[in-house]
């Protein structure tokens, strides 16, 4: 490497032009009076003293005051370490810039692939801040702690948050420090390892393999059909089968899945309870968002079980409820409803009463 290239490298390591020139001059000649440093370089004499003092403050030279100021280069061990760290920083920055440049823009693409799982986590964090309806996320304890602030803020603004945390030794003690009191947030503990998965507002999915994968990558999805498939994977493999970290909250309780609502309330409904609900969603005819409040008047799915909660398999084909608002009876379907009058996005169980059943 020629001297000029070496000088540019030092300038990239936080030295000024004069500082790099002075340091290389001292490396070439050894200890010199300050005035000689100026003579053997292109540094003005008026600037050389400030330049040497600055280099000393950065650890590149040592100065000695005799009858006049002398300077000599410092032991290069720390300097070499600094340069190597800077080189690693620049290399990492280049890789990150390359990845950001290559990253897909989800506003223009349905599916994109990124090189690092951490990138998926950051995309998820940003989109959690924009979520309006529901969040389903499966992740490790460390990943949950990384996203906890955003998830809590989402729950506080009315977003339903379902968190499936993969079990690890000491999880019970670790979770004592988690804020688990926010309305709208539930945590289940999954006893098998799995991927990072987040399904947001039924339209976006973020995926990254777990630590056992031989490759580090991530998938970003902006598509409601593919998100529906991942929602079912979350529901069947990461949610229904596993116990909550805390007992289920009392009413009002909000669901983002009609099928989960039916599983929870069908037995008490067929036992004579009056079930009051508020349903937020989309009018399937006008495609406008609206909200209805009333009582459930009927629940249907193939081969209805009156005395026990239906299996997820039975609900997977077709399920529907009817809600009497006082002025009309509205048929309510789940995600992707076509034949019903209303597609439910959030179902809030407001109250359960057995008053009429007792009177009967």
Automatic annotation (TrEMBL):
Pfam families: Regulator_TrmB, TrmB. Residues 111-351 form the Transcription regulator TrmB C-terminal domain. It comes from the Archaea. InterPro entries: TrmB-like, Tscrpt_reg_TrmB_C, Tscrpt_reg_TrmB_N, WH-like_DNA-bd_sf, WH_DNA-bd_sf. Signal peptide: none annotated. Residues 10-67 form the Transcription regulator TrmB N-terminal domain. Gene3D superfamilies: Winged helix-like DNA-binding domain superfamily/Winged helix DNA-binding domain (1.10.10.10). Belongs to the transcriptional regulator TrmB family. PANTHER family: HTH-TYPE TRANSCRIPTIONAL REGULATOR TRMBL2. This is TrmB family transcriptional regulator.
């Amino acid at each position: 490497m020629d001297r000029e290239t070496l000088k540019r490298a030092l300038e990239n390591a936080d030295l000024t032009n004069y500082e790099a020139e002075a340091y290389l001059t001292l490396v070439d000649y050894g200890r010199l009076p300050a005035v000689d440093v100026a003579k053997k370089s292109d540094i003005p004499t008026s600037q050389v003293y400030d330049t040497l003092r600055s280099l000393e403050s950065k650890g590149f030279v040592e100065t000695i005051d005799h009858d006049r100021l002398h300077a000599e280069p410092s032991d290069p061990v720390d300097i070499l370490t600094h340069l190597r760290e800077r080189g690693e920083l620049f290399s990492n920055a280049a890789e990150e810039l390359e990845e950001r440049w290559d990253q897909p823009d989800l506003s223009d693409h349905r599916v994109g692939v990124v090189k690092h799982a951490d990138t998926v986590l950051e995309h998820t964090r940003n989109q959690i801040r924009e979520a309006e309806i529901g969040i389903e996320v499966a992740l490790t304890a460390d990943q949950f702690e990384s996203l906890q602030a955003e998830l809590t803020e989402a729950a506080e603004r009315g977003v339903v948050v379902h968190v499936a945390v993969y079990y690890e030794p000491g999880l019970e003690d670790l979770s004592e420090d988690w804020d688990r009191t926010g309305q709208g947030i539930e945590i289940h503990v999954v006893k098998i390892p799995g991927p990072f998965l987040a399904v947001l507002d039924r339209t976006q999915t973020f995926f990254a393999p777990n630590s056992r994968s031989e490759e580090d990558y991530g998938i970003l999805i902006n598509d409601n059909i593919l998100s529906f498939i991942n929602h079912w994977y979350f529901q069947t493999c990461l949610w229904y089968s596993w116990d909550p970290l805390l007992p289920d909250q009392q009413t009002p309780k909000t669901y983002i899945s009609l099928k989960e609502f039916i599983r929870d309330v069908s037995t008490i409904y067929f036992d004579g309870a009056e079930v009051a609900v508020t349903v937020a969603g989309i009018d399937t005819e006008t495609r406008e968002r609206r909200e209805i409040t009333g009582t459930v008047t009927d629940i249907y799915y193939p081969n209805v079980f009156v005395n026990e909660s239906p299996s997820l398999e039975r609900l997977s084909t077709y399920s529907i409820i009817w809600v009497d608002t006082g002025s009309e009876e509205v048929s309510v379907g789940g995600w992707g409803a076509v034949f019903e009058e209303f597609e439910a996005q959030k179902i809030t169980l407001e109250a359960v009463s057995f008053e009429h059943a007792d009177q009967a």
